Amino acid sequence: MTGAPPAAPLGREPKLGGHTVVVIGGTSGIGLATARRVRAEGADVILAARDADRLLSVGLELEASIAAFDATDFDRVERFFDELPPPIDHVLVTGPGPYYAPLAEFDAKQARRDAGAHLWLPLHVARNAMGRVRPGGTLLFIGGTGGRLPVTDLALIGPLTAALPALTKNLAREFAPIRMNPIAAGFITTPLSAAILDDELDARLEQLRTTLPMRRVVGPADVAALAVHLMTKTAITGATFDIDGGQQLVDA
């Protein structure tokens, strides 16, 4: 625990003063960075995550309300929203990492869980947010850019990468004036990316530092800053925002 969250910089008002922000997956990586950023911008925070111990620690740090559950349990997601005190201003949804497997080693159960986390979860969150998120509020869904080009032995990644922006465009029309936007992240320095790459992590980081146009790797704080931007810019809905430091330019 790091103590009280930092206040907004001196000389300006917090951007989210008086707002309430729900972060699903808010105890690690992008979710945690966003929870800290919105709290620093004056928002009240409601956190949901699976790891009850870590959730308690982050909840104490941010003086946040907490709810421990698995977001792929959609009945529990519905109960969570039913119990939220209205009104809610913004919801950010992160999910588990992508399922990597060639077709010959494909596990149908894991693949269904991955599809549920990256496609059905946004649908369930949007449906249950109706009537609880104020008009003009925001739903933000964390997606990725990695499947935009065909990748050998990773057949599921591409369809799920393509599905979220298409889904969000439709939701933005159906749920207006609530705003909907996906954030498509490239490689981000998170505990998840470290777990996936394991002993290959350092080599990948060095490769990105030397090849990305910005000459550094995107971190969770970068994504959190973008999330706050989208929460506060009320003219933006139905648009996908890439944040990858130019990774698609060098990986193409």
List the SSEs and their pairings.
Elements: E1 20-24, H1 29-40, E2 44-49, H2 52-62, E3 65-68, H3 74-83, E4 88-93, H4 108-129, E5 133-144, H5 157-174, E6 179-185, H6 191-197, H7 201-211, H8 220-232, E7 241-243, H9 247-251
Parallel strand pairs: 1-2, 1-4, 2-3, 4-5, 5-6, 6-7
Write up this protein.
This protein has 252 residues and is an alpha/beta fold. It has one domain (20-251): NAD(P)-binding Rossmann-like Domain (Rossmann fold). It is 43% helix and 17% strand. The protein has helices spanning 29-40, 52-62, 74-83, 108-129, 157-174, 191-197, 201-211, 220-232, 247-251; strands at residues 20-24, 44-49, 65-68, 88-93, 133-144, 179-185, 241-243. The chain has a seven-stranded parallel β-sheet with strand order 3-2-1-4-5-6-7, sandwiched between helices. Helix 1 (29-40) crosses helix 8 and helix 3 (74-83) runs parallel beside helix 4 (108-129). The model has no long low-confidence stretch (mean pLDDT 87).
Oligomeric state as shown: single chain
Low-confidence stretches: none
Provide the CATH top-level class. Answer: Alpha Beta
Total number of strands:
7
Distance between the termini: 40 Å
Q: Assess the beta-strand content as a share of residues.
A: 15-25%
SS class = alpha/beta
**For the record, what is the CATH homologous superfamily label?**
NAD(P)-binding Rossmann-like Domain
Count of DSSP H/I helices: 9
CATH topology: Rossmann fold
Q: What is the molecular shape?
A: globular
Architecture in CATH? 3-Layer(aba) Sandwich
Tell me the series of helices and strands, N- to C-terminal: EHEHEHEHEHEHHHEH
